[in-house]
Specification:
44% of the residues lie in helices and 16% in strands. By secondary structure, the protein is of the alpha+beta class. InterPro entries: DUF6357.
Length: 412
């Protein structure tokens, strides 16, 4: 039988009576199924009296016990002896002794910050004085900001007013891994014009740049090289115009510009990603991959051969499927793209098979510079076949020579 004896609501630990015994009950951590875990340990009547009357001591006890709950993990048991040993020192000792205790033990600052504790006093472990401003209602955003600032401080980062305003504008003040967005309402109106000047500098720096799609990494994946190029351009311009900004602020601006450019590419029709149309090229082409996949393209359809091919790649490409071929059976030629090696082979029929003999093929290899290089080669082939690829060489028929060239490139 379990009855609630005292509660302040929310996640603050409750006092219950279970089978006639007083216990403190708190939820902390999660089990293997990500459901909250609940822990209990016995307390006395004297402890209950303090918990009822003194919010600060109640919260301090919670802060001191939470690390024990964390130590229990997803399946372990709470160390009840250690929890019980905290009751008298936290609830019944004079303030100087409580402060001294909190200098020796692990404790959870975020709970105290969320409930209004004075942060500067907490940092000096003057916990009793810090909790004079404690409130029953929690402010989780305050705790999140505190943790974000602590993480930055551990990296030696101190934000100035403009740095903080930029991070709030992009929504990355609390979590640097979140996708940035434009949130002018999150910025103090007095600081917003200065933030917008920084954003304007970034926009001017990357005007006309784009981040293309990279079908090798799946549908709507973007080109990492394009991303890095735009990020470097924006970083350089913002640092030049605002040298006082910390790295976190500069990075969030470039992240915003790149994310928006990537979104524009992802929402554009596939044909818009073409570098050149191929309306006057081949009439029938066959696309294949290393896993037995095949697709035919016939001229006169609604889409270009290049668009159809790259869609085929995006649908089929994987870590174990990185070789794709485009073949023109009528002309007896084709190209084979080796994504794992950043290389390509062009294949032409040197001699057609006669009287049951096998045809002979000439195979030449070339290195490729990223997805942009692949796009140029594919577009050239679908327009003019292997002959149109000559200008995109050098082409090497000797495999050993090609491998040496590849090693030299990889060593750079």
């Amino acid at each position: 039988m379990r009855d609630i004896v005292f509660t302040r609501g929310g996640w603050v630990p409750k006092v219950i009576r279970e089978d006639g015994e007083l216990k403190l009950m708190l939820a902390a951590g999660a089990d293997a199924n990500h459901d909250p875990r609940t822990f209990t340990f016995p307390i006395g009547e004297a402890h209950l009296a303090v918990i009822r009357e003194d919010l600060a001591r109640h919260l301090l006890l919670w802060s001191a016990v939470l690390p024990l709950c964390d130590a229990a993990g997803t399946r372990g048991q709470l160390d009840e002896n250690a929890a019980v040993a905290l009751l008298d020192p936290v609830l019944l000792s004079p303030p100087p002794d409580v402060d001294a205790l909190f200098r020796r033990i692990r404790w959870d600052r975020s709970r105290l910050v969320a409930h209004g504790a004075d942060i500067e006093l907490l940092e000096r472990a003057q916990v009793c004085e810090a909790m004079r401003a404690a409130t029953e209602l929690s402010n989780e955003k305050r705790a999140q900001e505190y943790h974000a600032n602590r993480r930055r401080a551990e990296r030696g980062v101190v934000l100035g007013p403009l740095d903080a305003a930029i991070l709030r504008y992009t929504g990355q003040y609390l979590h640097g891994a979140t996708i940035p967005r434009r949130s002018p309402d999150a910025v103090d109106p007095a600081q917003l014009p200065q933030v917008m000047r920084v954003i304007d500098t970034a926009e001017q720096a990357c005007a006309g740049m784009r981040i293309g799609l990279d079908p090798r990494r799946g549908n709507r994946a973007t080109d990492k090289r394009d991303w890095d190029r735009m990020a470097a351009t924006v970083d350089a311009a913002v640092r030049r115009a605002y040298p006082e900004l910390v790295d976190d602020a500069v990075r969030t601006v470039s992240f915003l510009m790149c994310s928006e450019a990537a979104d524009r590419s992802k929402s554009a029709p596939v044909e818009d990603d073409e570098e050149a149309t191929d309306d006057h090229g081949k009439t029938v082409l066959s696309f294949t991959d290393d896993k037995g996949g095949e697709k035919k393209w016939v001229r006169g359809g609604p889409r270009t051969a290049s668009a159809e091919f790259w869609e085929f790649v995006a649908d089929r490409s994987a870590g174990d499927n990185e070789v794709f071929t485009i073949e023109d059976e009528e002309m007896g030629e084709g190209i084979q793209l080796h994504f794992y090696a950043d290389s390509i082979a062009r294949i032409t029929t040197a001699r057609h098979g006669e009287a049951g003999s096998e045809p002979q093929y000439q195979v030449e290899y070339s290195l490729v510079d990223g997805i942009g290089g692949y796009r140029k080669l594919v577009s050239a082939f679908v327009r003019g076949g292997c002959a149109a690829l000559e200008q995109h060489g050098p082409w090497m028929s000797d495999v050993a020579e090609f491998e040496r060239a590849r090693r030299r490139r990889n060593a750079r």
